[in-house]
Specification:
Elements lengths: L1 H6 L24 H14 L7 E5 L1 H12 L7 E5 L13 H10 L4 H5 L5
Helix pairs in contact: 2-3
Length: 119
C-alpha cells in the first residue's frame, strides 16, 4: 500500500513496531503503551503542513484505533483501518461469494480488497 500511495504523490511514513518486522527486541513482548509510544514517535516526524491520514492494517489497525481513542486531541484528516476485527463497511454491497474469497485470500491479494469496486 505504501508504494501505491507514494507513486500517487503522497508523503508516506512507515512504522516498524518494536518486536515486529526488522526492528530489534524480542518478538511480541511489547505492551500496548510501548507500541503507542512507537506510533507517537512516528507522528512527531510527520510534517505538520500537510493533511494527515493514518492507515493501519491487522494488528496495526487495532493499535491505531486504541491510540486514537486515547489521544482524541490528535488532529487527523482521516483514518483507514483494515482488519477482520472491524469487518466490512456496511454500505458495501458484497455478496456472500465475494465475502468468502476476501476472508480466505484477502491477506494475499490486499490490492484487490483495497480496490474492490472494479470487480
Amino acid at each position: 500500500m505504501a508504494d501505491h500511495f507514494a507513486r500517487e504523490g503522497f508523503v508516506v511514513h512507515l512504522i516498524d513496531l518494536r518486536g515486529f518486522g526488522f526492528s530489534g527486541g524480542s518478538h511480541g513482548v511489547a505492551n500496548v503503551e510501548e507500541l503507542h509510544e512507537d506510533i507517537k514517535l512516528l507522528l512527531q516526524q510527520a510534517g505538520k503542513d500537510l493533511p494527515l491520514f493514518l492507515y493501519g492494517h491487522s494488528l496495526g489497525a487495532c493499535l491505531l484505533a486504541s491510540f486514537l481513542m486515547r489521544n482524541k486531541w490528535l488532529n487527523v484528516s482521516g483514518v483507514i483501518l483494515t482488519s477482520g476485527m472491524f469487518g466490512f463497511a456496511q454500505d458495501r454491497k458484497i455478496d456472500a461469494l465475494k465475502r468468502f474469497f476476501i476472508r480466505i485470500f484477502g491477506g494475499y491479494f490486499e490490492v484487490w480488497v483495497f480496490s474492490f469496486d472494479g470487480w
